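Annex B. Sample input.
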Amino acid sequence: MARQPIRIRVKLGKENQYNVYIWRASESRWIDYTANTFKIRIECRKNELKSLSLALAGIITDEQKADITKGNYVAITSNRNLVSKFVLEQPRYHTDRTVDVIAYESNGNNKKQLRKELTGDVRYTDTNISSILTQLCSGIIELDQTDNGGNNKISPSFYYDNLIKAISRCCELADKIWWIEHKDVYLGELGTDVLHVVDANDKFEDTATWTFTSHGANTNIYNLTYDNESESLINDVIVESTISTLGGLKTIRSEIFHATTKRTTLSSNLDTYLDEEIDAEQTTFKISDLSVFYTLPIIIQIGNEKMQVTSTNSSTSEITVVRGYDSTDTDLHHSGEDVCILGADGNNAHIYVDDINALNNPTSIYIGSELLTVTSIKPDYLVCTRSDSPYSHLIGAPVYTYQDASGTYSKTSPEAGSSIYDNELRSRKVIDKLAMTKNDLDLRGKAIIDEYKDGVERIRAHIINPRNYLGILDIGDGASITDTQSGLSNALRNVVGYTFEYIGSKEELQVIFTDEEFVFATELSESVEEDISKAIGQTAHVFQESFESYTGGGDILVVKKDMSLRNKKIIIYSNDNDAITLKGCGFTHYDIDGNYIGCLVGTSDGISIDSSFNPASTSHNLGTSTNYWNEVHYHTLVAHSPSNYKGDALDIIDRINLENKESLPKFIRSGGNKREYGIKMDNLVSILLKAIKELKEETTKLKQEVNSLKSKKSQN
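Annex B, continued. Sample output.
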């Protein structure tokens, strides 16, 4: 009997190294491009696809160029652990034989990806999430049937959303977490992608997988930072990068700001990129995406030159053009250069967006940092005239109203309800070394704005020896963090993101943790657990928790860390359960009609003052279902102190009119209703302290000037 051949599966990667592999379809195997790689950047966030930026050198052969093409696969390993598998976007080649590549985590089969496919116009009513996910993923990606969301019933609506957004929306409604697993990725196997959707409680761990400390013999983290809610708030971000062009190095720049609530995103690519270098006379050439041509002939712009596209060839991805349209000068153009769609007559580009109603009948819009004039509005797209300096915009790019019938929305005249209006201008400048296009900068800026426009509370730490963690550390991992400077001692956190960067021999892994510890509640219903989880933006576990200093009977709710709910409420009908807090925490207590009763404040470990502020009481009985508590909030003196307000403190205080609440600066106001402004005492105290310091400085200067005058007078 013939012996069956033994199949040997070779795992990708090498010990104690980062490795970069690109799939070679002609040989059905992964090719090691580690020696060609001099830059790697990976970004990972909860409920988002991982993103990858690569910079490669020595790309000479036709085989190499065939490998590095849009739609092909890249795998990154660390210490023989697969970090992720990615799909290449349009590469950008340079004259020095280097190439820059952007890629996103592989999210489907080799023909369809969740990121590219659209839902159509669909609506679900009271439908099991598992049924919705099965329909969305059909024919695109394998859905793990053991944990695909259960039977939670939701009612989402989608209007030509890409499937990643649709899945994220479903998970948001059902309090789920999703991630993609890459299976069977071996030397000669491309592998498959599997989508997992589970309860947030199942993904986020309540025990420590990792132990991090910033001091002593076991130090493995450094540069521990805390993103305070007010200090981290950003509503204006400038992103810059330096790229190589035919004319040498060039700085590209984009600015995204939150001056209006009338915002959406592109639902499809508006523009594309040149796929080869062309001279000043060439009339047929390759571009990366033919789907942007919704009609022919159509006018495009590359650099300062306009062209009329007369035909396309889908088999070769080539277009045929008339050069120098509208009396523009013909020129050389390099691979990767922006190809901008101007429309059939040069001033009527079609802009397809995810939610056209969100823009509220605009007369002008921003796409990224390009300002366009709206000439007409159709049911599913806007007709616009491009700016004098257009650039390429792809699916997901931010679109927001600049002007409509109600006004113009800018950094100096923001719309009521926008982040700039509510919080004043909070700007940040970011250098993105690996961004290759202005669209890359737009997407980076949008991600920063989305994450920080309301302020977040996060702990960030840099990890020593990243290769020991990358590929193993994952979203949802529990981590015990000890840091003497901030007072953290074995504090349990969850991983919610990381950024890895490798340039030459320099490697850096920054991990983002939740700031809040867990909320523990006893013998409450699962729906209450879900309510707490949604309100605080992280998992709340429900189980019996003992408390050594608590002598009262019955079940207790223990809050182990202060949490800012950012105007969200937790409502629990207590049914005679007791509540207790630790030092530095508190409950605001209301009756069933929402009337304020008092506050339960933690004064020291195991001792609490009840709502009547009776020091003799160690806990407060929340009573029957006619009473409940609904807000957890605590501040240190400077927890929300203004970090970048404009003007001198003395001038700010001088402008406050105690008989006119509108004179209060926004960062001192409390409450969202202008008729019911209160004062944020921590911010007021902070600015008063600063004013005293300014007075001392001015007094010192005056004394010096007086002494100087006295000295001069005595000399005369």
